[in-house]
Design goal:
Layout (H helix, E strand, L loop, with lengths): L1 H18 L2 H4 L9 E9 L2 E8 L2 E7 L1 H7 E13 L2 E12 L1 E4 L2 E4 L2 E14 L2 E18 L6 E18 L6 E10 L7 E12 L4 E16 L6 E17 L1
Antiparallel strand pairs: 1-4, 1-14, 2-3, 2-14, 4-5, 5-8, 6-7, 7-9, 8-9, 9-10, 10-11, 11-12, 12-13, 13-14
Length: 247
Amino acid sequence: MDRNRNMLFALGIVVMGITGTQAADQAATSKDRWEVTLAPYVFGASLSGDMVVRGRGAEIDLSSSDILDNLEFGFMGMGMARKGNWGFAGDIIYMELGVTSDMPPADIDPTLGVLTFQGIRRLSKYADLTFGGRWSHLDGRISFKPPINVDVKHTKDWVDPVAGIVLRTPEDHRWHATLIADVGGFGVGSDFTWQVFPSAGVDLTQRVSLEFGWRLLDTKYETGSGSDRFEYDTRLQGPVMGLAFKL
């Protein structure tokens, strides 16, 4: 809990500091047309943590190569539309995995879907405030090997309120960098979730850029007790590379 409070406090300090520059930049950011960006990407993710389905738990420890080896289907992408100081953004991660746990011996088949939808408010030419929700879908199945010989399956969906900031370098440079950070959950859906996503890119043309970075998404969700207990306490992280298209 101390770690969570420290992260919230730090995020609040950054937002308050940036807000002080808003008035000076208002005039420079007014535009009359919508700006739309779509960015499909490849996420070389690793997944670590613990998963409990119907009271029975297993440890998950997958490197990015393990996920690629066990990935049955996956899709990732981001999109953003903005006009003047306001806008909205969406982000989706969907993975179907088939993996093996050594402690205890078990086959784990999780299907993970994460959809984030946020409103955007420009604070300055260097920063935005984001606010919205993150829907998580987890279809978890654990097939324990002998001597346990138990097969358990459970599906959970939950929605977390999230708020954060986006920091960026000036838009008139060929090379650019962005930092996305948000926190959420607060016991509404998950106990706590947070994300950090630094990236850098280079313009290939006036409308296309190559983007690369590192994404970390940490989620702690638990519900129920005893034989009905469900827990998903994991960290999804890894390198990201993709193309951004300005429409």
